[in-house]
């Protein structure tokens, strides 16, 4: 009996890990680390672009793992740790060195609050991943919050912002709002039901190509609008769901004549 247990343990140790999705996760982690280094050097545009690249890689590793059947508990835990660095610590360092430093303790507290709320958001997602509705997220996903910070930096340079640091009260307020949204109960569409391998309408293909053309033409502007629109979509979706639920409850509780 003891020999069987030892054999099963050795077999489990020799299973190893799936290479491709974890390599993509490592690349996403590298993007977050590079963003921190670039932010400390004052290369804020490069730091923002690195976060965007990490976002693309983060989408790819999960998709590829599901498509190839290489999902694992190790991969999920590694992905969460990578997300905390790439989408929690990296954007917090970026926004602090770029815009929050002049506000003193209110600035670094805002950056810390962003990191800790991102960590809490990831922890809550990990424990609720099997029980929450797959169509919606509870709370703003940490990659979306990070992408809005990164695209805000790029949009600032796009509209003619001078190089180097800046000071805008709206940036300070934005960081606090994003931190709150990550730990709130506001619902966000998860895009998990978007299966690109299935047949779709021709109009959707045309719209997708048109969107790609817009991004290629004005990437800073279009990406900022998309990120900002997704952050705003949460409160709108939540209000819609609450209103529909109240109407349904009212129709069920209405007395019969």
Gist of the model:
The protein has 9 helices and 2 strands; from the N terminus they run αααααβααβαα. The protein is mainly alpha-helical and 257 residues long.
Task: Give structural notes.
This protein has 257 residues and is an all-alpha fold. The chain has a single domain (17-192, 200-249), classed as Up-down Bundle (Four Helix Bundle (Hemerythrin (Met), subunit A)). The protein is built from nine helices and two strands. The protein has a two-stranded antiparallel ribbon. Helix 3 (44-67) packs antiparallel against helix 4 and helix 3 (44-67) runs antiparallel to helix 6 (142-158). It is globular. The N and C termini lie far apart (71 Å). 33% of the residues are buried.
> What fold name stands as the CATH topology?
Four Helix Bundle (Hemerythrin (Met), subunit A)
Overall morphology? globular
Strands of the biggest beta sheet: in what spatial order?
1-2
Number of helix segments? 9
Please report the first level of CATH classification, the CATH class. Mainly Alpha
pLDDT < 50 runs, ≥5 residues: 5-14
> Helical content, roughly?
over 70%
**Helix vs. strand class:** mainly alpha
- Distance, first to last CA: 71 Å
Query: In percent, how much strand structure appears in the residues?
Result: under 5%
CATH fourth-tier homologous superfamily: CDP-alcohol phosphotransferase transmembrane (TM) domain
What is the strand tally? 2
Helix-strand blueprint:
Layout: H1 2-13, H2 19-40, H3 44-67, H4 73-100, H5 105-128, E1 136-138, H6 142-158, H7 169-183, E2 187-189, H8 202-217, H9 219-253
Antiparallel strand pairs: 1-2
Helix pairs in contact: 2-3, 2-4, 3-4, 3-6, 4-5, 4-6, 5-7, 6-9, 8-9
């Amino acid at each position: 009996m003891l020999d069987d247990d030892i054999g099963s343990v050795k077999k489990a140790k020799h299973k190893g890990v799936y290479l491709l999705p974890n390599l993509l996760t490592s690349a996403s982690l590298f993007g977050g680390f590079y963003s921190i280094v670039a932010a400390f050097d004052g290369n804020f545009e490069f730091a923002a672009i690195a976060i965007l690249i990490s976002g693309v890689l983060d989408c790819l590793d999960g998709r590829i793992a599901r498509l190839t059947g290489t999902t694992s508990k190790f991969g999920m835990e590694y992905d969460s740790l990578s997300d905390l660095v790439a989408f929690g610590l990296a954007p917090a360092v970026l926004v602090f060195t770029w815009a929050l430093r002049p506000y003193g303790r209110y600035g670094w507290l805002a950056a810390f609050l962003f990191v800790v709320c991102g960590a809490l958001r990831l922890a809550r997602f990990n424990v609720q991943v099997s029980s929450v509705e797959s169509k919606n997220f509870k709370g703003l996903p940490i990659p979306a919050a990070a992408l809005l910070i990164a695209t805000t930096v790029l949009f600032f340079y796009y509209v003619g912002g001078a190089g180097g640091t800046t000071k805008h009260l709206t940036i300070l307020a934005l960081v606090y709002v994003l931190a709150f949204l990550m730990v709130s109960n506001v619902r966000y569409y998860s895009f998990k039901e978007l299966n690109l391998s299935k047949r779709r309408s021709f109009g959707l293909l045309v719209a997708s190509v048109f969107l790609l053309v817009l991004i290629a033409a004005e990437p800073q502007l279009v990406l900022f609008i998309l990120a900002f629109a997704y952050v705003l979509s949460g409160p709108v979706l939540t209000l819609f769901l609450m209103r529909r639920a109240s109407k349904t409850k009212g129709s069920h509780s209405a007395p019969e004549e």
